[in-house]
Design brief:
alpha/beta; two-stranded antiparallel ribbon; 14 helices
Length: 312
């Protein structure tokens, strides 16, 4: 990412990079960690207009995790680590709203219930929120906020704030400027592994769609493809002629392991990116990782190939 004083320039590559980091953060966090992360984002977004609410003895937390002063809005988070239990979820929604209404009185104009489920609230949870909205027309009760709404909130932060949360991200110019040397460094760091010559082919849209990889991952893999020729040149001329196939086999094994451990295709992608050095704060290492991942995406069995006629 390019920093000039306090101004950071962000393009589609940077935005996709941050999008992947946001998705992973929201997938990994639950319980208190999810609440703390949300409140940190709100504090960055609204500064002193957003206040954290912590429990204080018998007074509790006022049935609020945070309060946005200008909107008189109470935010309440529920992010269980093991999914929703019907009775617990319904008790949480009703208890927190009624408690907030009682404790905040005329300082409550708006109420937001947020959760950590990628699939959204069960219908019975949404039904209760809508029922509470019908019964309390003087209070704006929003539709529940899930990870997608929180992601959009985070992406509305300034470039500097995103940098503060997640560190540097590569840009289009970083992709264009990539040379052989950082990829060589990456290969040397990956103990004994990389692939036999195969004709260069594009990152398959079918393969991306079939594996349900996100749009952000698609942007990053497509960007990495621009430098696949550098990867191929290095592998063809590497001193150890077996290095390419050994590395391909390492990617296959890592993919199989991640597939057993991870529930999300984007989590698998993140694991492979980490495996290939992509978690470094060094921009050249990040871009090299994208080039290598894009190269092996088509050339060995990382992610599933779309079967013929799968769209039918």
């Amino acid at each position: 990412m390019v920093i000039k004083g306090e101004k950071i320039s962000m393009d589609d590559i940077s935005r996709a990079w941050y999008g992947v980091h946001i998705e992973l953060a929201l997938l990994k966090k639950n319980e208190q960690e999810y609440e703390d992360f949300f409140c940190k984002v709100m504090k960055l977004k609204y500064s002193d207009n957003f206040q954290l609410i912590k429990a204080a003895g018998r007074d509790g937390d006022g049935k609020a995790d945070g309060y946005l002063i200008p909107e008189k809005c109470v935010y309440q988070s529920y992010a269980p680590s093991s999914g929703f239990n019907k009775s617990k979820l319904l008790n949480k929604i009703e208890g927190d709203f009624k408690g907030a209404k009682e404790k905040w009185g005329n300082r409550l104009d708006k109420w937001v219930f947020l959760h950590n489920s990628q699939e959204g609230l069960p219908k019975y949870g949404l039904d209760l929120i809508l029922e509470l909205r019908d019964l309390n027309p003087t209070i704006e009760i929003t539709p529940p906020w899930g990870p997608s709404e929180v992601k959009e909130l985070i992406l509305s932060l300034t470039d500097v704030q995103l940098f503060e949360l997640f560190g540097p991200a590569p840009t289009q110019q970083d992709i264009v400027s990539l040379t052989h040397e950082p990829i060589k460094t990456l290969f040397r760091a990956m103990s004994g592994k990389v692939a036999k010559k195969i004709d260069i082919g594009p990152v398959s849209v079918d393969k991306l769609e079939f594996n349900k990889l996100s749009d952000d991952v698609e942007v990053l893999l497509t960007a990495g493809r621009r430098k696949e020729k550098l990867v191929e040149d290095l592998l063809l001329n590497w001193p150890d002629p077996e290095y390419g196939e050994n590395l391909a086999e390492s990617f296959r094994n890592k993919y199989k392991l991640l597939s057993l451990e991870m529930t999300s295709p984007d989590k698998v992608f993140a694991g492979l990116r980490s495996f290939s050095g992509g978690e470094s704060d060094d921009i050249s290492a990040q871009v090299s990782s994208l080039a290598v991942l894009s190269y092996f995406f088509e050339r060995c069995d990382i992610f599933e190939n779309a079967p013929e006629g799968w769209r039918v």
